[in-house]
Amino acid sequence: MDLKTQKALPRVTKVSLVDEVIAAIRTMLTEAWSVGSKLPSEQELSRQLGVGRSTVREALRVLEHLGLVESRSGLGTFVIEQRMTPPRIKYPQSPEALVQLYEFRRAIEIPSARLAAERRTAEQLANIKAAWRDCELAVKRDSADEFARLDFLFHAAIVKAAHNRFFLETFFSVQDSFANNVTLILGQGQLKSMLHFHDGLIEAIERRDAKAAARAAEDNFKETDVRIRLLLQSTNGVDKPKKR
User: CA spacing 20 to 30 A to 45: which of 17, 32, 61, 147?
Assistant: First the structure.
């Protein structure tokens, strides 16, 4: 068969340093650390893994969202679950995959916003706010790649506050596709517009206004739909695929 006639291979996704740290800690969770064990401090993990503390902190935040570890104020981080999470789903970047990803996100994030407003704890609200502050700092640094990674953690914090394990584990399965496609959209010079993008959503969750939280999430997706359409129209004149 002539290789030139075959479909092109998808681009290989670069593995981030945070992902490598997550993989290393998850290996220890299954091979060395038992449930109830206290993890080494961030400083010690940083020394052992040869990475910065901010990288360790972000990795631990992901593992906590997944329900594998728990941070206890003044005590440290402890193992609460050892089982592995579902594998991440990776799709090549394409117009159809982009649209399908946002259809998936709508299905998870809008009901999660409503449930988070009803069920979130004070600590989870603080985590949501802290995650968005990190996103705002990435905007001010004009780093779309950093924003994409942190934006995922912000939305994961909301999904976690919904207290639905199925939502959370399914959401984490698309982490790589999420970050890649957010970067793709924001690569069009729109990063600065994200500075106050989720203020209304956060305020509704804080007020425990479930309807307003769901409406804010829906409104954000409507605005994102416009960004996606503009992106698709600017790339080879492709418009949004029609629904079957």
Answer: 147
Using CA atoms, how far apart are residues 121 and 206, in angstroms rounded to an integer?
10
Residues 6+ apart with CB under 8 A from 62: 18, 22, 153, 156, 172
User: How far apart (Å, rounded) are the C-alpha atoms in residues 90 and 211?
Assistant: 33
Assess contact for 180 and 13: CB atoms under 8 A: yes
Residue 21 and residue 51 in contact, taking contact as beta carbons nearer than 8 Å: yes
- pTM for this prediction: 0.67
H-state helical runs in 52-121: 53-65, 95-119
Strand partners, 79: 69
237: left (phi over 0), alpha (psi -120 to 50) or beta: left
Give the max Cα distance, the chain.
63
Q: Is there a contact between 208 and 86 (Cβ–Cβ < 8 Å)? A: no
How far apart (Å, rounded) are the C-alpha atoms in residues 16 and 25? 15
User: 95-234, which class in CATH?
Assistant: mainly alpha
CATH of domain 17-79: 1.10.10.10
What are the residue boundaries of the structural domains of the chain, listed by start?
17-79, 95-234
Q: Quick: pLDDT tens for 91-125.
A: 556 777 888 889 999 999 999 999 999 999 998 99
| Residue range 3-24: mean pLDDT, rounded | 62
